Every structure is written in C-alpha cells, then in structure tokens.
Amino acid sequence: MRAVVYKGPFEVAVEQVEDPRIQHPNDVTVRVTSTAICGSDLHMYEGRTAAEPGIVFGHENLGVVEETGEGVTTLSRGDRVVMPFNVACGFCKNCTAGFTGFCLTVNPGFAGGAYGYVAMGPYVGGQAEYVRVPYADFNCLKLPEGTDNESDFILLADIFPTGYHGNELADVRPGESVAVYGGGPVGLMAAYSAMLRGASKVFVVDRVTERLQKAEEIGAVPIDFSKGNPVEQIKEHTDGQGADKGIDAVGYQAQARGEDREEPATVLNSLVESVRPTGALGVPGLYVPRDPGGPDEHSKQGMLMVSIGRLFEKGLKVGTGQCNVKRYNRQLRDMIIEGRARPSFVVSHELPLDEAPSAYEKFDKRIEGYTKVVLHPHA
Fold first, then answer.
1. How far is CA 210 from CA 188, 366, 372, in A?
2. Please, what are the averages of pLDDT over each run of 10 residues along the chain (379 residues)?
3. What would the 3-class secondary structure string for the chain be?
4. For residues 122 and 112, is the Cβ–Cβ distance under 8 A?
5. Which of 63, 201, 280, 287 has the CA that lies 20 to 30 A from 235?
6. Is the pTM here over 0.90, yes or no?
7. Could you say which DSSP state residue 64 is in?
8. Burial readout 233-246 (b: 16 or more C-beta within 10 A, e: otherwise)
9. Strand ranges (DSSP E) for the chain?
C-alpha cells in the first residue's frame, strides 16, 4: 500500500509499504478514506523529536472496516469508523478511569500510545491506504453510513476533542471569558469549544493572518501579538482584570514576540499574566521531555523558565496533558450529527495522498492559507 514515510528533517515521501494485517483477534483493518496532517506531525517532520526515518505518519484517521479479527464483537466489514489518536486497551487502571491517553497496556514502559508517532508504541500511522486498529471494539467510534460530514468527523480523531479538552483542563464555564494562545487547528477548536460551552468572550492570540481571520469568523476576538503585547490587549478587553480562563494551544515551539526566534516558555508566562487571579490554565499544547532543536541547553532537556512565582501569587490552577479522546468523541460526534457543531470550518485543503510532501512543506511554512490538511488516500 502507499503511505507517507518520514525520510529525515523536512522530508516525507509517499512510498510502498507492507499492508497491515490482523495480528490479534481484537484487531480490525480499516480502509482509510480521510487522514489529517496534525501540527504535532510537524514536530517530527522538522526533526524536533527522536523520530527515526522510516516511520509512517498519521494519527488522525477515519475509514471503513475492511477486515475483522475473530474476537471483535461490535464491528463488521463496511462499518464507517473514526479512531482516537490514542491507542488504548480499555481495561487498565487509567483506561477504566477515563484516562485513555495514558493507557498502561499498549506501550509498555510508557503511559500512552498513538498511531504513527515517536515513542508512542509500534502502531503504524494512517496516512496510508489502510491501517490496523488494535482493541478495535474499544478504539473505533461508529459513524453514520455514507460520506456526509466527512471533514467534520475526521476532526474527532484529535483536534476537536483536544480543543475541547483544553477547556476541560481550564474548567471553562458558561459566561466566562477565555484567552486561547495559538490560532492553529487546536487553538481554533479550543476557541470554538469554549463557545459551545457558553463562554461570553473568547480571545485568540496569533500572528498569522488566515488564522486570525478564521477566529474572527467564528465570533472570537483576534489578538495579533505582532502588533502589541497580547497580555495588554486582552486586559484592555477585560477592564484590566484579565480573562477568567486561559488555554495554551501552542506548546514548546512558541515564538518570541517581535523576534524571529523560539522562546519555549513565552506562552505559559503570557497566560499567567493574561488570566485573572484565581483563574485557571489548560495546557493541551505539546511539551516534550527532550527537544533536540531547543534554543538553549535547558529547553533541550524539557526544562523551561516558567514564572512559578507569579503563578503561585495569583492562585492559578493548571491542568496539562494530552487529550483522552474517548471522553469526548461520542458526544462531539452526536453534536455534529444533530447540526450543533461544524468543526470543519478549520479545514483549508483536502488533497490526495500523493500530494502529502507538498502539503507538509506548505503547512509547516504556514503559507498559501494552509491551516488544516485532510488527505484522501483513495481519491
């Protein structure tokens, strides 16, 4: 089958790789109809992780069940399904508590597994014609038959639940104001989710014009940090108090304001100042224990200069960690089915699989309006 294979920093190629096969009675194989490029994939693409050449990318996958293992009981050939990026067993201590992003079974020695991602287990990615799904009864979410809302449903694999998760981590409640740092796909989903939860005012901080335009289109207040201190801009909109809650949808490759260099802790420190005393921060943005491309020796070891004194002084709560997709994907699916949510506004390009190398390059450079790319392997 054809698949997107990592070759080295800033290079992927569509190559022939081995077809997936049933390896366990609880497996299914899925013919992938949609698979998305994630901002997290760019960390590997840029060589900012320990990913080795040869890994097949793709943790946001949707398709049709092709083959089922003899132990699978709730799925049949032809079922349309979307899979959380988390590979989870469903029965370990963390899974039964709802923390499927931190499964203790699927990736021995590490809490959590995922498709096509460095250090997240042996699970081949789905930017390919087919993908194997382990523990399939637990990991597959059934969708309505047909092709309706394909570009909405594919976002259930990761970014829609992850944006919602940022709100859960920050405990966003109706009537509150929310500052979202980062207007990429996850940031836009965090802002959209805040509105679905009844937030009174949502700010989206970024400097990319297309992202800020999309934020404004959904009713958020765009904050261009290239035109002034975002903390001061947010305080101007909140009577000097700051937002009630804040969400970091950027992570460790944050850019210093006004300079063309990285400053890994700048978003965290800006959020500490942007949120009012006794507020809360949600941090779904990715931070890693090792960053080979970090701007200094501390950040290369995952240690950042965070303003813990101000955090403590203001009595702020902080929630962190990757999304437990299964906590949210069923309810979010039903909101899509009923027309209450249309997250596909974030999708900028839908392309055949063969155009993946060009799509990665353009998405990485944030050019030509590339905000979210969905690939169709069988187009």
1. 11, 9, 11
2. 97 98 98 96 92 96 98 98 98 98 97 96 98 98 97 98 98 98 96 98 95 96 96 98 97 80 91 98 90 83 90 98 97 98 97 98 91 94
3. CEEEEEEECCEEEEEECCCCCCCCCCCEEEEEEEEEECHHHHHHHCCCCCCCCCCECCCCEEEEEEEECCCCCCCCCCCEEEECCEECCCCCHHHHCCCHHHCCCCCCCCCCEECCCCCCCCCCCCCECEEEECCHHHHCEECCCCCCCHHHHHHHHCHHHHHHHHHHHHCCCCCCEEEEECCCHHHHHHHHHHHHCCCCEEEEEECCHHHHHHHHHCCCEEEEHHHCCHHHHHHHCCCCCCEEEEEECCCCCCECCCCCCECCCHHHHHHHHHEEEEEEEEECCCCCCCCCCCCCHHHHCCCCCCCHHHHHHCCCEEEECCCCHHHCHHHHHHHHHCCCCCHHHHCCEEEEHHHHHHHHHHHHHCCCCCCCEEEECCC
4. no
5. 287
6. yes
7. E
8. bbbebbeeebbbbb
9. 2-8, 11-16, 28-37, 61-68, 80-83, 86-87, 113-114, 130-133, 141-142, 177-181, 201-206, 221-224, 243-248, 275-283, 317-320, 349-352, 373-376
Dig out the tokens for 229 from the structure: 């201190």
Three-class DSSP category at 61: strand
Query: Encoding tokens for residue 76?
Result: 């049949």
The owner of tokens 């089958």 is 1
Q: Give me 129's structure tokens.
A: 């014609």
